Amino acid sequence: MTTPAPQPTPYYSAPAQQQKTNVLAIVSLVTSIIGMSLIGVITGHIALSQIKRTGENGRGLALAGTIIGYAGIVLSVILVLAFLPFILAGAAMSSY
């Protein structure tokens, strides 16, 4: 009868450190969603720059915040241009 081969001793390494998410990427997404589009665009661009330099997580959040922010700005401009004739007409009527 042969004896079984000794099992290798498992070794444990230090737990892998989680890579942190860029804070400005989170701020960009949140501010764009709640309607502060300009802040979302600015912080999104800064976050993308920091992520490229440091290798942090959050690129998708920063991109989403930037895209939603730009969409909010475009929507705001369209709404202002759509309602501008009514505002001007109301101002002209009130001057009589």
Structure summary:
The protein is mainly alpha-helical and 96 residues long. 68% of the residues lie in helices and 0% in strands.
Helix and strand topology:
Elements: H1 23-33, H2 37-54, H3 59-94
Helix pairs in contact: 1-2, 1-3, 2-3
How would you describe what is shown here?
With 96 residues, the protein is mainly alpha-helical. Helix content is 68%, strand content 0%. α1 (23-33) runs antiparallel to α2 (37-54), α1 (23-33) runs parallel beside α3 (59-94) and α2 packs antiparallel against α3 (59-94). The longest helix has 36 residues, at 59-94.
Give the SSE order as H and E letters: HHH
Q: How many separate domains make up the residues? A: 1
Structure class? mainly alpha
Shape, please?
rod-shaped
Key phrases:
96 residues, mainly alpha, DUF4190 domain-containing protein, transmembrane
